[in-house]
Amino acid sequence: MSLLEVEDLRIRYARQGRLKAALRREPYDFEAVCGVSFTLGAGETLGLVGESGSGKSTIARTLIGLKKSSAGSIRFEGAEISDASNREWTRLRTDMSMMWQDPVGSLSPRLTVKSLVTEPLRIHGRPAGRDEAERLLGLVGLPAEFATRYPHQLSGGQARRVGVARALALDPKLLIADEPTAGLDMSVQGEVLNLLADVQARSGVAIVIITHNLNLVRHVTDKMAIMYLGRFVEQGPTDQVFAHPRHPYTKALLEANPEPDPEARHDRVALSGEVPSPINRPSGCDFHPRCPWARDTCATTEPEWIEDSGRGYRCLYPL
Amino acid sequence: MVSSVATEPDRQSEGRAEPLVRIDGLSVDFATPRGAIHALRDITLDVPRGKVLGLVGESGCGKSTLAYSLIGLLAENARIAGGRIDMDGQNLAQLRPREWRALRGRRISMIFQDPMTSLNPVTTIGRQMMDIQYREKGGRAEKRARAIEFLEQVQLPDAASKLDAYPHQLSGGMRQRVCIAMALLTRPDLLIADEPTTALDATLEMQIVALLRELQEKFGCSVLFVSHHLGTVAELCDEVAVMYAGEVVERGDVAQVFRDPCHPYTQALFECDPARIREATRRLPTIPGTLPDLRRPPKGCAFRARCPKAFERCETEHPPLYDAGGGQAARCHLNDPAEDRA
């Protein structure tokens, strides 16, 4: 049994009011995540990669119970949690925590760093004194005198560390990090990622990293899943996916990641067009209108998920 | 003075075409209640004619301040404390608002980071594209046709119909294409692009970079490309200037600088880029320490406190830009021919 098992997860969002939809005879909601499955064991790191609107943050919000799924199952330590009650969620959130995307925006500007990092402890009725604050700040490598500061007195990297301290306050088993390095400078990016790696090595926490930064995924994740329009198009161990992508979208994403080497400029598979709307999905394969290798059947036949020696992909003509 | 040894800014343009813009000793201060911040100090840099110059550095290094001073859009509390910016005999550092208006949007134009906030949300794309042609001659139909022509140049599908669209009806990538079309509409000599792809997804980022490259070649304008993303700089730029704490610490041909960086900061910055680390690793390199306080810039080298190669001289003597050959120059004593540690 893995720590987290997600099977055929589907999440819908409302598009417009029910009444308006009924009058116009249009569907009132649409599927933002359609049929996603993955497992994550203790101490493992999974990278969820995709462009904006691919549904990766929606999955994160559902995993932590901020958005209800419409179908499928999420099992955490073997127990189904997709229909957990609010009371059960209170307990579950001591085992799962979230690092939000905006490092400064996710901290209340009116609380000191000490109150911010000990807030989860207070909520769950645990001791939340100065000792605890110092322990948590020490954990993320911030000096104890930061306890009296306010978020606006922190740099982006320091605010990130406070976010990590908050997420780790209850010693969770699962940490969900939504774009943990967005907006950080390269030299600071490494600090935050090294910090997460240290914490994982020490406590065996499982981490889901949501990002569009492939360079980061390559170095810090064990396995990765690439999302397009609410579906996984490819999933597998990170090194294998990088070495040999099977899905054309994965290949295009990897090539859209320019090497910082002017002598390596080359003709790459440049994708034309943009991500279509999940309200109006293309027929057949979601990716066929942008796929440089698309054939006629791609427009008519929806590809199945194919499992192949520990990896999976959704393509009729894999590379 | 040691700085007399083959130092004083050997112009990078020596033996080459006359640059479009020459920045010479430019310093910019920001007034704050707690004292002046010396955000740019003694910047000497050429923007080559008909080429793409990349400006890289981390947040707070002054790259945006430099870009904004080239188009006269510095904040109210900014003051040009010294130096010149020469463009065709005019010193941009001393222009009056009136003179800036004649230049801005005509000979110099700009693309901003977030295309949503740089377009007016309550008027149509067409209206905005006609408005910026207010100086041009010709009737409505003519200006409309020009607007469509430029939207086609930026490969916006179904350009004519987009004129009636509002910015919120377009996707982020399309909005940035509209901004590029608007910036090029007046055929500027200098296009300043301030992190134009930061708000975009990876596949769109590559589309926009390819588009900028193509249009730059077609129109032959100079581009100042501000970015913190080394990959896109390598992809797009001909020359590069690396900034740290308000100074240009290294500049030169992009291939040469990326292959053989001469300044320890440039070296450290490149080492931090996970894209340059070929073997998968759990430990990512970082640059320990923080930026110096720019209210009181350090006396010696600005990078000294974080530099693994610092020695006594770095403490006391501010390094000039030493010539490193082939147009490359670095503000580091290790490049002083008199210093044999290099």
From TrEMBL, chain B:
One of its GO terms (biological process) is peptide transport. It comes from the Bacteria. PROSITE patterns: ABC_TRANSPORTER_1 (PS00211), ABC_TRANSPORTER_2 (PS50893). Residues 21-270 form the ABC transporter domain. InterPro entries: AAA+_ATPase, ABC_Ni/Peptide_Import, ABC_transporter-like_ATP-bd, ABC_transporter-like_CS, Oligopep_ABC_C, P-loop_NTPase. Its main location: membrane. It comes from Roseovarius atlanticus. It holds the Pfam family ABC_tran. Keywords: ATP-binding, Cell membrane, Membrane, Nucleotide-binding, Transport. It is a peripheral membrane protein. GO terms for molecular function: ATP binding; ATP hydrolysis activity. One of its GO terms (cellular component) is plasma membrane. Belongs to the ABC transporter superfamily. This is Peptide ABC transporter ATP-binding protein. It is found in: Cell inner membrane.
